[in-house]
Amino acid sequence: MRLKLGVLGVGHFGRFHALKAAAGARTELVGVHDADPARAASVAAEAGVAALDAPALIAAADALIVACPTAFHAGLAMAALTAGRHVLVEKPIAATLAEADALIALAAERGRVLQVGHLERFSAGMAALRAEGGVAARVGRPLYLEAVRIAPFRPRSLDVSVVLDLMIHDLDLALAVFGAPLVGVDAVGSAVASERTDIANARLRFGNGAVATLTASRVSLKMERRLRLFGTAGYLQMDFLARTLHVVRKGASGAEVQPLDQLPGFGALQSSWQDRDSLEAEHASFAAACLDGAAVEADGTAGRAALDAALRVEEAVAASRLAADA
């Protein structure tokens, strides 16, 4: 059985969704829609399907991918869920927490899948982090996380700040790693090349005492994606672009472990991974949830938690600007 998919919004990233759905092993693309008719026609021709208006596409599909600007996420996702369709909505789940709550409630009422497009969860790097027992097996109880995610400026996704565009990936990661409520946020940021915050740094405190420091920029000259995580039994360092993972752990042993003279009782282990198609993996996960009842990797609750954290960072950035101007 194949999942009949429609894509609502075929801008830069929505186009990739459409092409991936058209080529999917368990999906059948039945049409696309975009507010720009010319754009819709172009992507429809490329994918070999029809360009339809939103109501017609929702009626023709079993599930919809909502990949339009954030301001329209809730409206289109609500329309699809109301019609009894499954929904994969790009991150952030919605523009407000009230909209997110409404989507979660409607999906539960209709018994439909609501998945949020936190694509980083499906990356090969995250698979490497989860392997071999995951974070706890490598560093013990996580205490401190530091993540850097910077990229060159591109004239897209400017309807939201860098916090909702890029940092939200690491906010989602921190929430998952620490498994505790966010209790405090301090942040600074600035608009550089757009009307919204383009660079931000946040310090997050969690209910279990853990701390995360996150940096995100979309106005850098080159890409950088790094993660460091310290725990009660060691630490790890990941470079997502070089695809390398370095772990230093208490009591580590084995043929591939390098003893550390400067840290008696500790061992170092280095590994790497091969890249994979994260979008293909995300689509496969969504299809499995819709067709087989498999667990949803990034459900509405996870999407809401990431949105809540992002909005709190934005509020802290705004507060820091007011304090600086006072």
CATH superfamily of the largest domain: Dihydrodipicolinate Reductase, domain 2
Number of strands: 14
> Overall pLDDT, averaged?
94
CATH class of the largest domain: Alpha Beta
For the record, the count of structural domains works out to: 2
The biggest beta sheet, please?
Answer: 9 strands, mixed
Strand content: 25-35%
Unreliable runs, pLDDT <50, ≥5 residues? none
What is the architecture of the largest domain at the second tier of CATH?
2-Layer Sandwich
Q: Which structural class do the helices and strands define?
A: alpha/beta
Widest sheet: strand ordering: 7-8-9-6-10-11-12-14-13
Set out the fold topology.
Elements: E1 3-8, H1 12-23, E2 27-33, H2 37-47, H3 54-60, E3 63-66, H4 73-82, E4 86-90, H5 97-110, E5 114-117, H6 124-130, H7 134-139, E6 142-150, H8 162-178, E7 182-190, E8 199-206, E9 211-217, E10 224-231, E11 234-239, E12 244-250, E13 258-259, E14 266-272, H9 278-292, H10 300-325
Parallel strand pairs: 1-2, 1-3, 3-4, 4-5, 6-9
Antiparallel strand pairs: 6-10, 7-8, 8-9, 10-11, 11-12, 12-14, 13-14
What do these coordinates show?
The chain is α/β, with parallel strands linked by helices. It has 2 domains: 3-119 and 279-295, Rossmann fold, CATH 3.40.50; 121-275 and 310-321, Dihydrodipicolinate Reductase, domain 2 (2-Layer Sandwich), CATH 3.30.360.10. The chain contains 10 helices and 14 strands. The chain has helices spanning 12-23, 37-47, 54-60, 73-82, 97-110, 124-130, 134-139, 162-178, 278-292, 300-325, and strands at residues 3-8, 27-33, 63-66, 86-90, 114-117, 142-150, 182-190, 199-206, 211-217, 224-231, 234-239, 244-250, 258-259, 266-272. The strands form 2 sheets. Strands 7-8-9-6-10-11-12-14-13 form a 9-stranded mixed beta sheet. A 5-stranded parallel beta sheet has the order 2-1-3-4-5, sandwiched between helices. The model has no long low-confidence stretch (mean pLDDT 94).
